[in-house]
Amino acid sequence: MTASLDLFRQINNAVLDLQSSDLQSYAAHLKRLGRLLQHPDLETSNATLTQNLDLDSFIKASEATQGGMVGSATLQWPEDDLQILGLKLLLILRFSENPEFMTTIGYQFFYTGSRKIMSGVHAITSQIIIPFVRDYKDYVEAQGRISPSLVLPMSNKVFIVHGHDGESRETVARFLGNIGFDPIILHEQANKGRTIIEKVEANADVGFAVVLLTPDDLGRAKGDSDLEPRARQNVLLELGYFMARLGRDKVCALRKGDVSIPSDFAGVVWEAMDEAGAWKQNLARELGAAGHAVDWNKVMR
């Protein structure tokens, strides 16, 4: 039995929220993550993964490594990958039941000289929880079977599909560049005698696409009298191309103003490109859900 993609999307979102949390919010995000990991669809996988594992013994053995300096203790992970995954699951579930326990573990095993409670929480999130969710998803989708395979790293290139709104295009490109991605804008790439679609294909080796739906054209259905703002036809063509090439989960549209959304577009994420800038957090969240590493400190600047 394989859990739904929507469930793992919610798990990824909970981790992203935890990654950017503060002292007032981390416990709520942690408890939500624990509830999601105990979803009925995951019950069989969890039972198999944690069979015969003793979390308390693992913690006790790890605490015994404590030397004379705070934070010198090391977690004593076993050699078996499945046992490591199972212990991480039990540890995260214990955190969700008792968020203060997470701060204790952070102080004991991830102390870096900072007295801030959240430094330990964020260290555990980046070093234990994020790798766990990645490997756990693979485990569940493989129905418990793990075999080594070559996985190419995800490209940090993001193709920007746009119309005539140059200001929006440059704003999105600057934001992507500031948070560590490589924005690809078609007219900035060499032509090399190619047609537009050939040029799109040649630059489609990207890990994500952002489509700007801006009101550049006016149109109407036959028989209607009122014109409505629409995105340019090339934008809709390239939208469909990247949906097919990358998958719908790796395409995010930013809708600016009152622009008509195609009815067949219902299955793709789109966000309002608001003047307040909330679209930046929403786009970063979609990038994270698609598997990209997102530095939330840069996003929130």
Word description of this protein:
The chain is an alpha/beta fold and 301 residues long. The chain contains twelve helices and seven strands. Helix 6 packs across helix 7. The longest helix is centred in the middle third of the chain and has 25 residues.
List the helices and strands and how they pair.
Elements: H1 5-19, H2 26-37, H3 43-50, H4 55-63, H5 81-97, H6 99-109, H7 117-141, E1 157-161, H8 166-178, E2 182-185, H9 196-202, E3 208-213, E4 217-219, E5 228-230, H10 233-246, E6 251-255, E7 269-272, H11 278-289, H12 296-299
Parallel strand pairs: 1-2, 1-3, 3-6, 6-7
Antiparallel strand pairs: 4-5
Helix pairs in contact: 1-2, 1-7, 2-5, 5-6, 5-7, 6-7
Main sheet: strand order = 2-1-3-6-7
Instruction: Write the element-wise H/E pattern from the N-terminal end onward.
Output: HHHHHHHEHEHEEEHEEHH
Task: Give me the count of strands.
Answer: 7
Morphology call? elongated
Biggest sheet, in brief?
A: 5 strands, parallel
Mean pLDDT: 86
Q: What is the CA-atom radius of gyration, in angstroms?
A: 23 Å
Structural class: alpha/beta
Number of helices: 12
User: Stretches where pLDDT falls below 50 for ≥5 residues?
Assistant: none
Descriptive keywords:
two-stranded antiparallel ribbon; five-stranded parallel β-sheet; 301 residues; alpha/beta; single chain
Question: What is this entry, summarized?
Answer:
It contains twelve helices and seven strands. With 301 residues, the protein is an alpha/beta fold. It is elongated and about 75 Å long.
